[in-house]
Structure formats: structure tokens, C-alpha cells
Amino acid sequence: MAIEFSARIRRIPSYPVADGYSLPADVAMLASNESPDPPLRQVVEAASRAIAGANRYPDPSNSMLKRALGNRYEVPTSRIAIGNGSCDILLAAGEALLEPGAELVYAWPSFSVYPHLAAASGARAITVGLDDDHCHDLDAMAAEITVATRLVIVCNPNNPTSTAVPFADIAAFAENVPRHVALIVDEAYCEFNLLDDPNDTLDLLARHPNLVLLRTFSKIYGLAGLRVGFALCGSEDFPRAVEQVRQPFYCNAAAQGAAIEALKHQDAVAERVERAIVARVEVEAGLNALGIEPAPSQANFCWFDLPEDSDEAQVVKGLAERGVLVRAGAALGRPGALRVTYGTPAQNVRFLDALGEVV
User: Fold this and answer.
1) Separation between Cα atoms, residue 166 and residue 143, nearest integer Å
2) List of domains in the chain
């Protein structure tokens, strides 16, 4: 007789994992929205120092990292949550907030982890389609909030479509979300967003105790391999709740040490943003030359529909055969589209040349 698993195992979708981790180093890995820039030397050294004490458990309260984040963002440490990547905090939010009979509202296509929350908890997921510009339709999302709604998620900039809505729209939307509903604004790519200052949303925390700003060290700081995420919260309730549903020691010592050091180098952050913007302009121009119009990106990746006569699977296969890995839209909620991370200048040229050959 086979092992009998819970019903929720059958409900939870598999996360669309990117290929290529076992391939040669010369492959352009443009499928996972990672930074092409490695961690700074000082960050690597900080992680190495932490590893030297790996016979001890890491600080379970993440006190030094919370203090560094509190100083950076002027948020009390009691209103900061740390996670093993921002996904850890998202999944914990689902555990803490959702249950059968509750509702979760988010846009679609959006981040692939969001469907896991309702599936794991038995809550009802209400998905709202994006508008014609691949952006969140915040008015339509607000109309779906009911007395059963426990959680609303806005991904800004949105993954996988790379688009963003202005701060003024986020602020107005937050005013429309009832206080009993947790509002998570997932800002994993906020540093790349040129529509507004990435820290404008911090001002909303004082007015909305139900607001959570979710951020990560995986993207702009280049620490995807160490998994460090954090949430800046409007009250102490959210950090306290997610702590209750997670295992202890969820953020390892090397990750804590690296993240603390990374926060000290905001000049490097600015330089990385500048390089991403240059890549954004160059890749968009290259796509336009191929007759492809990408969505207006405010992230470190682009999103575009393939020409009507293209076969998505064949295009992805053709790119892979030319040493370029991208993410297929079918796995992200929109068949016939591609999501492509900006890489190094050479990788971006390689992608455009390869796409020109297969499309």
C-alpha cells in the first residue's frame, strides 16, 4: 500500500523551477531573475567569517540584521520580519492568515508562489486579470475584497510581467483595503523601479497597520544563493504571527552576516541599478528591431509576447540549443510569452542574436 498524503499535497502546484544548473558555465542563465553581478568581496568575507562559527546555531532572533534594516529604513525592529528568502515569509503569511472559508486576492499572471498559499491552507484564491498594459488592475482587485478576505497581494513591480503601478495608485489602493485584511506589497524588484522612489511606500506604514512591504536580498544585492528576505510592517502583529508558524533558525548565519554587510554598500546598489537600466534600454531596442514590443519594464527582466506564428516550446528549445536559458510563459500564466532576465552585456547580445535566429 502506498503512503497516504494529505489532500493539500494534491492541491499545491509545483513551483516552475528553471533549468540549467548542471550546464556548463558559458550558458547564459537568463531564466531566474538573478543578478549577473556576484556578491561584493566584503560581503563574501562577512559570510565566510560567519561560517567559521557554523558549529553554533544562528541568532534565532536575527537581532543584528533587524537592527541594520531598522537603521536603513527607519522602521522599529519589532515591525521587521526576516525569512529564508521572501518566499518563506509569503508561505508563513499563508499559514498565519488563511484557512478554509477565507479568501486571498491577487493579480494573475503574477509571482508563481502565490497559488501555493490558498492551495496549502484550503482558502479560496481570487485571481484578477492584468490590464491591457500587463499591469495590476487595482480597482478590479479592490472590488473583489469581501468580509471573507484575509490577504491581498500586490506584486510591484510585477513578476513575471516586469510592469509597475505608480506609488499614488498603491497609496490609494491601501486606503481602500479594510483594516482586517493584510495587504502585502511584494517589492522584490523595487530598486529597479524608476516610476517613483523605491522608499516612498515606507511612508504608508505609519498610516496602515495592516500593510506589509516584502523585500529581498536575492535580486539587487546578488544574494539569491543565500536566501534572505525581509518584511517591513505597519504593526508588530504580522512579524509575531509569522514567527509562530515557522521552524526556528530559518535564516542561517552566513546569510545574516552577508546581508548585514551588503546593506553598508548602497553605492554598489546604485551602480547595479544603473547597469540594469542600460541593459533594459539595449534589450528593448533589440527586441523592437525584431518586431517585438516588450511590456514597459521596471524590473531587471523583460516580458513579451512572441509573434503569433511562433511555437513557444520550440523557441525556448532553440534558445537553449544556442546556450541561452529563458523562462517560458506557459509556466507563468501566459502561454506564448517569454520572461528574460537582463544578464551581462555579452549575454544580452547573445540572447538577442539567438532570438533573431529562432523567431
Assistant:
1) 19
2) 18-38+266-358 (3.90.1150.10), 41-262 (3.40.640.10)
